[in-house]
């Protein structure tokens, strides 16, 4: 079977799994909804733009209002679903589930690239400090909002993540080359520095301490469609770009010198892979906080199943990551008291990864 056929078959199967997981998750909660009703309510929630109204909305950019067109939407389907169930599914549960799938999709894809980039199965999206940078930006916005020029928590976290990635890359680059070992060490040092900065801000955060700590644990509560709209386009476009470089990522596994002889522009490819992986990680962390183990465990499990070829590994890991985070978030909100999803991913991911270590099934990339 060709790699294209394998990719298509695995992706189709994992997409079907994701759909089943989404329906099951939306059916569970304090008010149980029949899965068939859930499916109809989800279809009713699908909308398409129908008209444009000029100048009805503004976007705050550094305190300045900018008029933008406002789109009006029309539902594609109109199945007969009780209004209460439609609201529960489409307005309360589905935004959270969609955000969980989006963040899991982004983190697993970024983790796959980072593990291939560093040729290390223990690498994850936060290895160069992107998640810590996002946490620093978010805590600053929560504890000291007067210091943040833009009032959005998402934008503060996103900017902190990208600034950290840029600084780490700049520190590690010398003479047009970016040695992977230097990049890794710069990332470790930056994480330590930002960790100290975050601790300082938490000590002086006052009444904002709980909100900051919950954000750093990773959470999906109070998710809205605007959160999904912030992260989804970045994640999808980023993964599509990374997908066009999977052959180069495979070649880089042979070593930079061999990759150069095979015609790969090594430094340009490294920069692009690192930049795009950092961007989609930043988008996920900005809306959901720091969620660990998704980008570490999921790519490794999929590598054991489908093999190391990134042409297959990247899309399958991304889809599996989406299902994984939807499942863990469903567990997080299923108990008598909701817990941050980052705690659940750690509870599930860490023991499973230790099990793989004991079984000696943690393989090199």
Helices and strands, with pairings:
Blueprint: H1 3-27, H2 35-44, E1 47-61, E2 64-75, H3 83-118, H4 130-143, H5 153-172, H6 180-203, H7 209-217, H8 225-243, H9 246-252, H10 256-261, H11 266-288, H12 294-306, H13 310-332, H14 341-358
Antiparallel strand pairs: 1-2
What is the highest CATH level, the class? Mainly Alpha
DSSP summary: helix tally? 14
**Mean pLDDT across all residues, rounded?**
87
Order of helices and strands: HHEEHHHHHHHHHHHH
Helix content: 55-70%
Question: Under the CATH scheme, which architecture would be assigned?
Answer: Orthogonal Bundle
InterPro entries: ABC_BtuC-like (IPR037294), ABC_transptr_permease_BtuC (IPR000522)
Subcellular location: Cell membrane
Membrane topology: Multi-pass membrane protein
Family: Belongs to the binding-protein-dependent transport system permease family. FecCD subfamily.
Verbal overview:
With 365 residues, the chain is mainly alpha-helical. It has one domain: ABC transporter involved in vitamin B12 uptake, BtuC (Orthogonal Bundle). The chain contains 14 helices and two strands. The protein has helices at 3-27, 35-44, 83-118, 130-143, 153-172, 180-203, 209-217, 225-243, 246-252, 256-261, 266-288, 294-306, 310-332, 341-358; strands spanning 47-61, 64-75. Helix 13 (310-332) crosses helix 14 (341-358). Mean pLDDT is 87; it is low at 56-62. It is found in: Cell membrane. This is Cobalamin import system permease protein BtuC. It comes from Natronorubrum sulfidifaciens JCM 14089. Pfam families: FecCD. It is a multi-pass membrane protein.
